[in-house]
């Protein structure tokens, strides 16, 4: 059994607005069947790191928000704090960054909420039956929403091959500890030369896992919550980015299953296949796109949607995968196949072109 993926090309002979195309795609996914009046609906996107310009243009969120408003739902725009230290590490910096990148009330007329709280530890644990994980730690304000509309910038990714809807609902919907679970197979470490022995990490660690002698060190009690990373004023606490691509992708697929479970499947997905940069929007810059702008695709199945978008990009690149060419050691089919195995969706799709 295949899933429908609705697609509109960027090509336009009559100056038709891309926003009208996106509107039609949204309608084909029948949001009225998913969302109801007064429901709190998360509109999940990625606000882009400061300095990056490849991230999704905020204007593409307008048709989504308008549709949710017409239904009578109460949409809110959301993203989660990052694991790495940057402009999206805590909600204060993150909201400033979002505003500067155009995701704010004055441009979109909806509140912006960082879904995992001030320091990325506001989470809800959801049990799953994964091959690797028995539970996932999700951003609380996403896990407890009534539904979600996921709008993703489809592009390359150095760890996962590509980043699309699956990545947005896994890495993008987890709290900081969840991101650490997916990215690392060990606990954080501390750069002794950067540590000023201020003791701030010690006062925030709930597991008595930090010793001061006189520099901070992490002991065996560490639960991997990663709170210390966000509170260190010296950026002295580092993440061991040591999980393999296969491990990260498989855990992502399991996190995606937890998100679908938490939201009872009330999720619609829209991918914007423009500015298809080779790497993540979390970098403070971006490289030349690997292909020209392709268009827009929407579905109620994130696996089918990402597979269709990957195929569209490969076709535009002459029939080969530009991401695999750049990251030959990364097999992006792992996230698709494991998500399929976890019941998140199917790789089989029917591409329906919408004019
Ligand atoms: S917060 Fe950072 S600088 Fe302060 S003691 Fe901990 S590791 Fe050292
Ligand atoms: S990751 Fe959490 S438990 Fe481990 S040292 Fe840091 S604050 Fe403590």
From TrEMBL:
<dbReference type="GO" id="GO:0046872">
    <property type="term" value="F:metal ion binding"/>
</dbReference>
<protein>
    <submittedName>
        <fullName>4Fe-4S ferredoxin iron-sulfur binding domain protein</fullName>
    </submittedName>
</protein>
<dbReference type="GO" id="GO:0051539">
    <property type="term" value="F:4 iron, 4 sulfur cluster binding"/>
</dbReference>
<feature type="domain" description="4Fe-4S ferredoxin-type">
    <location>
        <begin position="216"/>
        <end position="242"/>
    </location>
</feature>
<keyword id="KW-0004">4Fe-4S</keyword>
<keyword id="KW-0411">Iron-sulfur</keyword>
<keyword id="KW-0408">Iron</keyword>
<dbReference type="InterPro" id="IPR050157">
    <property type="entry name" value="PSI_iron-sulfur_center"/>
</dbReference>
<dbReference type="Pfam" id="PF12838">
    <property type="entry name" value="Fer4_7"/>
</dbReference>
<dbReference type="InterPro" id="IPR017900">
    <property type="entry name" value="4Fe4S_Fe_S_CS"/>
</dbReference>
<feature type="domain" description="4Fe-4S ferredoxin-type">
    <location>
        <begin position="186"/>
        <end position="215"/>
    </location>
</feature>
<dbReference type="InterPro" id="IPR017896">
    <property type="entry name" value="4Fe4S_Fe-S-bd"/>
</dbReference>
<keyword id="KW-0479">Metal-binding</keyword>
<dbReference type="InterPro" id="IPR007160">
    <property type="entry name" value="DUF362"/>
</dbReference>
<dbReference type="Pfam" id="PF04015">
    <property type="entry name" value="DUF362"/>
</dbReference>
